[in-house]
Design a protein that fits this description.
Layout (H helix, E strand, L loop, with lengths): L1 H24 L4 H20 L10 H20 L6 H27 L8 H16 L6 H13 L5 H29 L15 H24 L4 H21 L2 H21 L3 H33 L29 H13 L10 H14 L2 H4 L7 H4 L4 H14 L13 E2 L5 E2 L5 H9 L1 H23 L3 H18 L10 H8 L2 H4 L7
Antiparallel strand pairs: 1-2
């Protein structure tokens, strides 16, 4: 029992750390961002090492590796003295040292000790092939090799049933704790001023919305876990209220993709919830109504929180490039005109979301599709390098839907078998704006690493769906909810925005949860 509590606390703090890493990637630049990215590997290494015992590493081969690293690390630090990002270099070396020990242990276990892991070797081989293709592609980044060592070792580590249960149920706990920390700091230090789209503790409203989506998934999963284990009713009510409140926070960001993603995630959750309920139709209807009412009520409540809590002890913090004289200054009146009013929130953010319902505001739906087809025909790889897709005058009238369609087609038309370098990335939309990425994670993977990798990524998603259904059929609603909610959130949001930056929590979680697909170990019902 004590070991279970220790593991649950350890893994919870690991996932909270991944949330904080995500926040640093979404709010900082340069040195801090690089260090945060590399720390992802350190956190995953802690999770992997928890599956082994200290005595496993008390062998000559590990002493040899330690000796080599005692020579290698100082040499690199000395000759890398002029490297501008010393923190990135140091954290990279820490990863090399840690994963050296881990990979040696995995190889020793599989080949020398012949203690074969409980993995589905066919699926694992396909995953290794995908990583191999990514490494062999024209893309010059080193992260596929890093991910291969990191998650390959994770998949080949056999955790006992208790450890597995602690790892995956701690995902929800860690994110909830991360939400309390990150949003708590935002309440204290980030006034809701100037920018109608609320950034929270991030530099970008979409990245803040993505974090709210993860938090929404965490509260839903915690709700299922508590209901499955028939625990405290008060905790279940708190999870329900908190999950509904995430809609209010998401609306503050004005992110249409976030609302769409949360709606689809809700369906994955409801399937699990209904399976646990005796009165299925009544439970389904009641749950939808409850979340809807809480979401509606949460809009003014969350607005009041982000508008007035920071004014209690006003010490605003602005990240690089954010500060201006038009933003709230320390000691400024809590009634300053710089603060965003509730009417501004409704007009701008709710208006952006309702645009999908009322197409009369910009263009009729029956005119939208033909217009998109015309633009798509005009855009090809031979003209994009010479001309912008839209003129500045046209760009003011272009809908986000049409814009993404054109960007997606631009990337699709340039796909090949061997991928591209990062220099090939991006598309010039207007003279004032260039889309730096595909706004679609499958297209981005296929563009970077080649069409075969894109196909294998799609196969990963299909395997996730199959595992989700299988978990439901075997009565593992808790695991099904974790898999269904978080993977759905990553995939859907990633179809329109960016959530695949290395170090971003959703991307890390996408690979981490694949353990449930690859590993044959039993899970608690």
């Amino acid at each position: 029992m004590k070991k279970s509590i220790f593991l649950r606390v350890l893994y919870t703090f690991c996932f909270t750390a991944l949330c904080l890493i995500d926040q640093l990637l979404g709010s900082q630049t340069g040195r801090v961002q690089f260090i945060a990215t590399n720390l992802t590997g350190v956190v995953i290494a802690v999770i992997i090492l928890s599956g082994y015992k200290i005595k496993n590493f008390l062998k000559p081969v590990y002493a040899i590796w330690t000796g080599l690293m005692c020579i290698f690390v100082p040499v690199v630090l000395i000759y890398g003295e002029a490297y501008p990002y010393k923190g990135k270099l140091i954290t990279a070396l820490i990863n090399i040292v840690l994963y050296g020990f881990i990979v040696i242990r995995v190889v020793e276990k599989q080949i020398i000790d012949k203690q074969y892991s409980e993995v589905r070797w066919g699926i694992f081989t396909c995953w290794i092939c995908m990583i191999g293709l990514m490494i062999a592609s024209r893309y010059e980044g080193a992260w596929p090799l890093w991910f291969g060592a990191m998650f390959g070792s994770f998949y080949l580590t056999d955790y006992c049933e208790e450890q597995r249960d602690c790892i995956f149920k701690s995902v929800a706990d860690g994110i909830i704790l991360g939400f309390l920390i990150i949003q708590g700091l935002a309440f204290v230090f980030r006034p809701y001023d100037t920018l109608v789209r609320y950034n929270g503790l991030y530099l970008n409203a979409n990245m803040n919305a993505l974090f709210y989506i993860l938090s929404y998934c965490a509260f839903l999963c915690k709700w299922i876990i508590v209901k499955k284990e028939k625990k405290n009713v008060v905790l279940r009510i708190a999870c329900l209220l908190s999950s509904g409140a995430m809609y209010g926070f998401a609306i503050l960001t004005g992110a249409k993709t976030a609302i769409l993603t949360m709606a689809i995630v809700t369906f994955a959750f409801l399937v699990c919830f209904v399976r646990l309920s005796k009165k299925k139709i009544l439970s389904f209807s009641g749950c939808v109504i409850a979340i809807g009412i809480i979401a509606f009520v949460s809009i003014p409540v969350t607005y009041m929180a982000v508008r007035y809590i920071p004014t209690v002890h006003l010490h605003p913090i602005y990240f690089e490039g954010e500060w201006s004289e038009y933003r709230i200054q320390p000691g400024e009146s809590r009634d300053s005109e710089k603060y965003i009013t509730f009417n501004q929130l409704l007009d701008n953010n709710v208006g952006r979301i309702l645009w999908f319902i009322d197409f009369d505001k910009e263009s009729k739906f029956d005119k939208l599709i033909p217009c998109m087809q015309v633009y798509a025909e005009e855009v090809d790889s031979s003209t994009i390098e010479k001309n912008f897709i839209f003129t500045d005058e046209e760009s003011a009238q272009v809908s986000p839907f049409k814009l993404r369609y054109v960007i997606h087609k631009h990337y699709y038309d340039r796909l090949n078998l061997v991928g591209h370098t990062t220099e090939d990335d991006g598309v010039a939309v207007t003279a004032e704006y260039s889309a730096p990425h595909a706004h679609n994670w499958i297209l981005q993977m296929a563009f970077w690493f080649g069409i075969p990798v894109g196909i294998l990524m799609i196969i990963m998603c299909v395997l996730y769906v199959a595992k989700y259904v299988g978990l439901l059929q075997t009565g593992n609603e808790s695991y099904a909810c974790i898999l269904g909610c978080f993977v759905t959130a990553f995939v859907v949001f990633g179809m329109f925005e960016i959530d695949w930056r290395i170090g971003q929590f959703p991307f890390t979680l996408f690979f981490l949860l694949f353990y449930l697909v690859v590993n044959k170990g039993s899970v608690k019902k």
